[in-house]
Amino acid sequence: MVTFLAGGTGTPKLLRGSASVFPPADTPVVCNTGDDVELSGVLVCPDVDTVLFSEGGLLDRETWWGIDGDSTETHEAVHRLADDAGLDTGPRYLSADAQTAGREISRHRRFSGVAEFMRLGDRDRAVHVTRTGLIDEGRTLTAATATLAEALALDRPVLPMSDDPVATIVHTSEGAMHFQEYWVGHRAGPDVDRVEFRGAADADPTDAVLDALDSPVVVGPSNPITSVGPMLAMDRFRTALESTPVVAVSPFVEDQVFSGPAAKLLAASGYAPSTEGVADAYPFADAFVLDTDDGTDLERPVVRTDTELGTPEAGERVCRAVREALERVGAEGP
Ligand code: GDP
Q1: pLDDT digits (tens, 9 = 90+) for 9-24
Q2: What's the mean pLDDT in 273-286?
Q3: Angstrom distance (rounded) from CA 175 to CA 157
Q4: Is the CB of 91 under 6 A from ligand 1?
């Protein structure tokens, strides 16, 4: 068994085409939940859902979120009502009191549905309604995710990193805001002072995650701060990584990032915005997979290949490099 850690873009891309190297049933994916929000009354788990939709063959691969060909009738109607009522568009983060009221899992990530600031598709929303309903009936996020994975006929175990609330809060020049407000609402515009994982000190990885972390681990090419950071903010998660072989794939080619705000957030967290900074953020990683054009000199084993992902062939190629790196650090292959 080999366990992958995922955010919402890089690792799902890596997993596409991975089946011939890492059989899905023996390759669980642990997903970040720091980005999750409660919006329009439902719990939205962007990284979990990208993995579910990708593995289930439903993902919109233009955006790497949402369901391909989904309609947005409800979302548009919500916007029309807000416009007609003269209500400001969002993000509309609820009051401090409301953040700790309501569902425990939604703490510090509760947004009003007025003018819904994230574009939820209609079929996508059905997934959030079902997940939230299962949680309201008393199931954990882990159990609700397993039920959704079954409905989508997935072979692969998909594991939220925790059943406890951990909210990624970005402290910026325009104040502290939830990561989705910074990323979707402000398009990563404001300067960032630091990133906080609110709730992490009281959160634990689930038993299923701790079991999965007994196996060799692959950190896909993820945002080290907002996708892997919430996992590392939990003591037991970090300790588990320190005692198992870990291979990380860089989301950079030297200081060139493939996509997203990783460079800015690494810099704000005291790391170089480059492969070198990623390596510093991952002291537990035993080996790295870097791009052929990435000459970064790391004092740990490196396997190089073309790390541009996006097709099944590319995923397979990078997974072969990952397997070679695992072998170099003495981890048993699948
Ligand atoms: P998020 O949840 O959407 O922020 O996504 P992740 O944390 O999973 O992934 C974001 C990271 O994926 C970014 O830092 C990108 O640089 C990286 N990434 C995206 N596409 C590729 C690719 O084709 N190859 C590699 N190596 N990294 C990529």
Answers
A1: 999 999 999 999 999 9
A2: 98
A3: 38
A4: no
CA of residue 11 relative to chain centroid, distance: 9
Q: Measure 80 CA to ligand 1 centroid, in angstroms.
A: 34
Q: Is residue 54 within 8 Å of 184, Cβ to Cβ?
A: no
Phi then psi for residue 38, to 5 deg, are -100, 120
- Alpha carbon separation from 219 to 140, 143, 151, 284, 286 (Å, rounded): 25, 24, 27, 11, 11
Per the CB < 8 A criterion, the answer to whether 325 and 247 are in contact is: yes
Cα(9) to centroid(ligand 1), Å: 5
Report d(CA 283, CA 331) in Å as an integer. 18
Condensed to tens digits (0 to 9), the pLDDT of residues 52-97 reads 999 999 999 999 999 999 999 999 999 999 999 999 888 999 999 9
Give the closest residue to 74 by CA, choosing from 122, 132, 9. 122
Structure tokens at 289: 């997979």
Q: Kindly report the protein residue whose alpha carbon is nearest to atom 23 of ligand 1.
A: 309
Bridge partner residues of 195 (DSSP)? 170
Atom of ligand 1 nearest to the CA of 47: 2
Is the CB of residue 221 below 6 angstroms from any atom belonging to ligand 1? yes
Q: Is the CB of 182 under 6 A from ligand 1?
A: no
pLDDT digits (tens, 9 = 90+) for 305-334: 999 999 999 999 999 999 999 999 988 655
Separation of CA 102 and ligand 1 centre (Å):
33
Give the contacts of 23 (CB within 8 A, at least 6 positions apart): 334
Q: How close is the Cα of 258 to the center of ligand 1, in Å? A: 6
**pTM attached to this predicted model:** 0.97
Residue whose Cα lies nearest atom 1 of ligand 1: it is 8
Query: 273 CB less than 6 Å from ligand 1?
Result: no
pLDDT tens across 167-217, in order?
A: 999 999 999 999 999 999 999 999 999 999 999 999 999 999 999 999 999
